[in-house]
């Protein structure tokens, strides 16, 4: 076996290296400059190989092609007999730049099996090579298909080299199989379809092979095709793979030039279209016994010109083919190969499955997508399929069928593209969701994962051609990304609501664009859902106007949607959920009476009886919960408790029916926490039942602690834990303030672990206020004052931001001014107390005439009392002028 045969396996670096070796030393530098151009990384790789040893032929054999003596004399393989766990190396099968492949056996007390073992060879290992090898192992672990060589095991040798144990494929390259068995054209096409199936499966798993060629497509004695060697494959979403895949220029341009795509030669971004091109080259060779072009003896620049700029010959134009073969190739198969090998990736088949389907149409005698469906072409296909039909019937059907095909040809092409993009969008979101839920990766890694997913979705968006079916699927994908980034209603997320808002807005725009182009139920439903999710996260962030706008848009769409089919429960739910969201915004704006009207109206439309279906019953839980919050603030604490007990009953049933459903458990914990406030937690607005409040608070803590323990990186679980600790403290504040203070301190400690976000500052300001309220002993006065100062500082900082410029927060700021003013007065800081009281005065005047909420009325009373106390202290202090 000579070195040139081996070199054909490798990339452009090896080609330049080999060509340089064939030139005199005085000409090498000039040649390398010409071949590498401005690519300094490529030049460095070639020069380092040349400089590694004075004997360049030795370097070539030992570094790139493997030790030729080992290949020619496998019986003397230096690693034969090596034991790797239960596996033993028998002999060398193949060697290359990354490593060697050995025939191996598993022979232990479990079972006997012949395997192939691939491992990094001694003497050529490097961190980048080992990392690349591990990446291949991880990629193989995601692939499980009958036409892909399976991974069985993996590990590391005693000296730290990784190895992969694979299914041993005893077979020949597909081209040799076809020639040796004298397969007819149709048989070759049938066999090739199995290759398409394997490649399409890999693409669905977001993996590009990048090196499809005969030696990597084997056929075993049973006639089964096996796609092997994913050594230079590339994941479309690298963050879905553990570790970091090398991204050096060397690894990006690994390829076999004879089968490489134009974009591989030019170093452009690679997509699944790269493999489609290589499939086209392989199909050309299977059908003709030749390749579409010859570049073996060309320089890299000349080879690139052939691949990227010259027209490729048709399979039927290959010289030396029998006339019958040429006739069989001319037409459909010529066009299929040409479409797969189009220089423009966008004009190739959109997936390996679509190439496979077109080959099936060829085999069945039907019109293929690669050819324009003219009336004459369609007629000829019809006649061939219906030779025995009567001529008159045939002509009649032919005209109808031909006309239909002519008018639907473009739509069939569009359907193929749409199906591919829809599948791709679903795949990337599914993989990302699994990765987020299963991984304990760092925030930085998770952020990179989302960045990769968003970039991929944007690529799909650009290639969609504004097809409304694609747009609506992309809308759903962006909405799911938003859920995982920071939805307040989704259990596991990254706690990044700002990013979620951006994704939801994109989802809204895509759904509306789809709806404008093709008003269908799916686009309407997607738009309503995206608006709802946007309203939810904006509401949780304190942006009442933004959330109000989102909910109002959703309600407008949902009302019309529901009226079209009033008996459709899903349409009714969409309307009711957004009505309740709008009511929640009114509640946040302290328009509690209007909020309650919305909640009650939603309950009337929806019905007050659970039906055992999670979507329906979760909506009912939310409506009872929101109604209870409004009732409490309007002074109806007993009715509030009654509504919450109904909500708890439904939520407990859902948890019993689905004990492993984390979302159902979280919903139950929220309702447990809410009833604490109505029973005893909310000062002056409760029924005074501390024992019941403590029971529900404990249940809430038990649930959220268990959920948090399952995933320490879950931001939502952490937030729920802060709330649960605060609610536990609330349950003790009336009867055991010392116990309450302990729980408040736990909540504060956990909140301080959160990054410096607006949400964290808002939580701290509220918990600081609550803790200060139970520190009533004299020796606690200093701590109380410091807590109130911190709370006021947080609220002043937040008040300057537009998202917090809404009545509910301004009422909290008024409360903060008044309680701090009172504490400063007690500490003798009368000037500061007066200043704070003056800051509170405009807010006090505003809320005395605008809010029906008893929470605010209560705070108004406290502020009036504070004003009087400060005025009294000032009047007694001769050092200060009387207050205004």
Uncertain runs with pLDDT below 50, 5 residues or more? 1-11, 52-77, 246-252, 373-379, 388-411, 438-443
Widest beta sheet: strand line-up:
1-2-3-4-6-5
- CATH T-level topology of the largest domain: Transferase(Phosphotransferase), domain 1
Structural class: mainly alpha
Largest sheet: 6 strands, antiparallel
Report the mean per-residue pLDDT as an integer.
Answer: 80
Q: How many structural domains?
A: 6
- In total, how many beta strands? 11
Shape: elongated
What's the CATH superfamily of the largest domain, by name? Transferase(Phosphotransferase) domain 1
Distance between the termini: 103 Å
Beta-strand percentage?
Answer: 5-15%
What does this structure look like?
With 884 residues, the protein is mostly helical. It has six domains: 3-167, Phosphorylase Kinase, domain 1; 172-371, Transferase(Phosphotransferase), domain 1 (Orthogonal Bundle); 392-541, Serine Threonine Protein Phosphatase 5, Tetratricopeptide repeat (Alpha Horseshoe), CATH 1.25.40; 608-735, Serine Threonine Protein Phosphatase 5, Tetratricopeptide repeat, CATH 1.25.40; 740-794, no CATH class; 806-876. It is built from 36 helices and eleven strands. The strands form three sheets. Strands 1-2-3-4-6-5 form a six-stranded antiparallel β-sheet. Helix 18 runs antiparallel to helix 19 (443-462) and helix 26 (614-633) packs parallel to helix 28. The longest helix has 48 residues, at 391-438. The relative contact order is 0.04.
Jot down its keywords.
single chain, 884 residues, mainly alpha, Phosphorylase Kinase, domain 1, Transferase(Phosphotransferase), domain 1, Serine Threonine Protein Phosphatase 5, Tetratricopeptide repeat, 6 domains, six-stranded antiparallel β-sheet, three-stranded antiparallel β-sheet, 11 strands, 64% helix
